[in-house]
Amino acid sequence: YSAVKKLDFKGSNKESLMHFRTDIAKGAVHKKLRIGVLGSTRGTALIPVIEACASGALHAEIVAVVSNNQTAPILEKGLALGVTVTTKFISSKGLSRAQYDAECTATLVGAGAEVVILVGYMRILSKQFCDFWNKRCINVHPSLLPKHAGGMDLAVHQAAIDAGDVESGCTIHQVTEEVDGGAVVVQKSVKIEQGETAESLKAKVQPLEGPAFVEALQKFCGKEVISYADAGVSIDAGNELVEVIKPACKSTIRPGCDADLGGFGGLFDLAAAGYDSANTVLIGATDGVGTKLRIAQATKKHDFVGIDLVAMCVNDLIVAGGEPLFFLDYYATGSLEIEEAAAVVRGIAEGCRQSGCGLIGGETAEMPSMYAPGDYDLAGFSVGAVDRNRILPSGVGAGDVLLALSSSGIHSNGFSLVRKLIAKENLDFNSPCPWDADSETIADSLLTPTKIYVKSCLPLLKKGLLNAMAHITGGGLLENLPRSLPKGVVAEITGHPVLPSVFKWMQQASGLDDHELLRTFNCGIGMVLIVKREAVTEAKEILKLAGEEVYDLGVLVQGEGEQVVMKSSLE
Prior knowledge:
Layout: H1 2-5, H2 26-29, E1 33-39, H3 46-55, E2 60-67, H4 73-80, E3 86-89, H5 97-110, E4 115-119, H6 127-132, E5 137-141, H7 153-162, E6 167-174, E7 184-191, H8 198-218, H9 235-250, E8 280-288, H10 292-299, H11 305-319, E9 323-333, H12 338-355, E10 358-366, E11 376-387, E12 401-406, H13 415-424, H14 442-446, H15 454-462, E13 466-471, H16 476-480, E14 489-493, H17 501-510, H18 514-520, E15 525-531, H19 536-545, E16 550-558, E17 564-566
Parallel strand pairs: 1-2, 1-4, 2-3, 4-5, 9-10, 14-17
Antiparallel strand pairs: 5-6, 6-7, 8-11, 9-11, 12-15, 12-16, 13-15, 14-16
């Protein structure tokens, strides 16, 4: 060894004089991934894996096929692979779950398996098995998890149809103790057609399972570095989205903020906005869009839900008498689609322009396995300011007049019921709209954005013409108006506007009586203003100049009990 250390393998120009053999130990460096299989049935999804291994498309080999069913056809597939593959039936008789799984693990390890795939395996696995094969065992589920987890076969397909899903598919996921709860590795989807049955959907999904296994196994082959993108989160897509939405955000600049993105927090200067901090009270509001998002996602129409998000927050702010100053959004999805997300944010920016507040920041969260493909959720956060002497409600009492401002439609509440009624009437979102001839489809009508009342109502607030306001959202007129009334005061509704056609259709389809309809939908009223009688004429003139439809809704009187009394019926 002393002599070897004195040898020099460099030439006079420091070039290497070594000859590297590429054939020695090549099999060890480039060895194939060894796959163990557990199955209880036919093993149809195993066929594409076998073919991919044979063709070289998958740098892997199957080393074991194990079943708990002595007559399972999957054992025949194992035997057909030859004597080098361990093919074995293991009986569970007299064994606990952990003991049986230990027997299976011993067989798999003895055959040299590095990863395990479950192909139609009809057993719940023990904690010990899951811990031993942690992140090295995958299964297939016939839905787009996390939707319809826990079910099996036709029941899963029927659940997707019953839920009104527009697409389904299969998911390859890591196996954990929680059934169908492991991280998603691969998903493949198919469209659910009108009139689809569980059997026809299964016939479309099942052929995807084998190729999905192959794609998932490829991720195990020779992968030494696992990036954030491999986990399903694209940093580059997030950065690209920021660049795409910057112009929309910049368009919301107002005194006090620059709407610049990229920092850790958005800044707002109250003094620059004209507020004396000593006498200013900040107002915060947060909200979402709810299941109205399901319609946008099903029809790929994402342009207006951002306006809804802003509206639901800023309309709450002005009820306290304040001016919206800035807005932040939270967008969460399983896989970031840049154009889809950008359309949503452009809608948010439009809502901010309509309400005069700056879009100073937000968060885009990409969370694989938390959301099914095509799903996303939204939350909004807005802050406003009001002089402490002008906080509403203030001075509300008997004799005050109720003015109603029209809504633009259903706004953003009640859509769980709306979607159920559409399904009940055997319609879908792309059906011709039965209540509105001007809307091409049901979706076009339902996605009409929530009206924003900020710019029409701010002049009244600055003139001190309002005693209180009520934003008519979930719970309708009957639940929201009392939130602005003191004890001992009752709102008598004597002039409810004519029920818009969309609400007439909803009432007919649901069978709801007037009382329940008024507790569920806005029924054509988006905002109620409480005005001193002597200020009514001036308030109406300002509102009409702003383009609002104003209705004489009723009057406040002294009384106890129910705080909203309908003196007029819905027409």
